[in-house]
Amino acid sequence: MSKNLKLRILSSLFLIPLLLISVWAGGLLYFIILSSLSILILYECNNLIQKEISYKTFILSCLFSIVVNFYAFTQNFIMLFILFLFFASIIFIYNILFNSKNQWHLFSFVYAVLPSVILIIFRQNKIYGFELVLMVFLVTWLSDTSAYFMGKLIGGAKLAPTISPNKTISGAFFGILISTSLLSIFFYDLFINHTLLMVISFALLSVASIIGDLFASFLKRHFNATESGNLIPGHGGIIDRADSLIGVTIGAALFLFILIIFLGDYKNILESFLI
After folding, report:
1. Any alpha helices (H) in the chain, and if so which ranges?
2. What pLDDT, in 10s, does the model give residues 127-154?
C-alpha cells in the first residue's frame, strides 16, 4: 500500500465520521461545518485564480457567503431570492462598467456557496432532511471509492486523458454500477412505487459525481495546478475532496425539482420544506 493511499484512508477515517455526525445532528453544528467548507472552497478557488489573494475582497466574499448560508439555514427563501437578484445585478453592472475579465472570481463564489446552500436547505427539511443529505454523501462516496479501486484493479482505456489522465472508463462504469446497486437497495422504501426511476436517478447522480470530479480537474489544469491545496493529507485540498460532492449536490437539487414538478407522488416533499 502506497504512502499516499495510507494518508488518504486515514484522512477519510477522520473526516467521514465527522461529516456523518454533523449530518445526523443537523442544526448549528451542521451549519458551521458547511459554511466553513464553503469558505475553504472559496479560498482555494481564489488561490487557483490568482496566487496573491486580495484579502479585503476575500473577507467580504466570506461574510456574504455566511449570510447566504444563514438565510438557507433559517429557510428564508424570500431573502435568498433577493440576495440572488442582488448578486446577479452586481455581476451584470460590474461587467458592464469595468468590462471585467475576472469572470472566474464571480464563478468561484457560486461554485463555493451554491452547494452549501443546497445541502443546508436539504438538511433543514423537517421530514426528509437527514435522508436527503445522507443520499448525496453516499452517492458521492460510493461512486468515488468504487471508481477509484475498480479503475486501479482493471485499468484500461482512459475516460478523459487530456483532463484527468488517471481516470479510466472501467472505473467510471463500475463506480456507477456499484453505487447505483447499493443505493437502490438502501433507499428502496423511498421509491417503492418508482423503482425504475430510482435506478435511473442514482445512475445519473453517479454520473454527476464523475462530471464534478472532471470539472475540478479541468479547473486545476486551466490554472496550471496539480492540486487545489494541501489541507487534507493524501487528498490535497478541499476541492480535491469535494469536487464530486459538488456535482452530486447540484444534480440532486435538479433531480428533486423535477420530481416535485412532474410527479404528484412527491408533491409532499415541497410541502415539507415549507413546514
Report:
1. 3-25, 27-49, 55-73, 77-98, 103-124, 129-154, 169-186, 195-222, 238-262, 267-273
2. 889 999 999 999 999 999 999 889 889 9
- The pTM of this model reads 0.89
Cα(30)–Cα(73) distance, rounded to whole angstroms? 10
Amino acid at 88: A
- Lowest mean pLDDT across 163-167, 183-187, 216-220, 235-239: 235-239
> Do 23 and 134 meet the contact criterion of CB atoms below 8 Å apart?
yes
Of 65, 75, 206, 69, nearest to 129 by C-alpha is 75
- Whole-number Å distance between alpha carbons of 154 and 80: 46
pLDDT tens, residue by residue, 182-226: 999 988 887 777 788 889 999 999 999 999 999 999 988 888 887
Q: How far apart are CA 171 and CA 179, in angstroms?
A: 12
Task: Return all residues near 5 (Cβ < 8 A) that are at least 6 apart.
Answer: 234
Answer yes or no: are the C-beta atoms of 11 and 234 closer than 8 Å: yes
Neighbours of 234 (CB within 10 A): 17
* Closest C-alpha among 45, 44, 5 to residue 231: 44
What does the alpha-carbon distance between residue 146 and residue 143 come to, in Å, rounded to a whole number? 5
Q: Radius of gyration over alpha carbons of the chain, in Å? A: 19
Q: What is the pLDDT of residue 72?
A: 93
Q: What is the Cβ-side half-sphere exposure of residue 203, based on CA atoms within 13 angstroms?
A: 10
Distance CA 257, CA 165 (A): 34
- What does the pLDDT look like over 100-118, one tens digit per residue? 556 677 788 889 999 999 9
- DSSP 8-state symbol, 235: T
Q: Are 151 and 168 in contact (CB under 8 A)?
A: yes
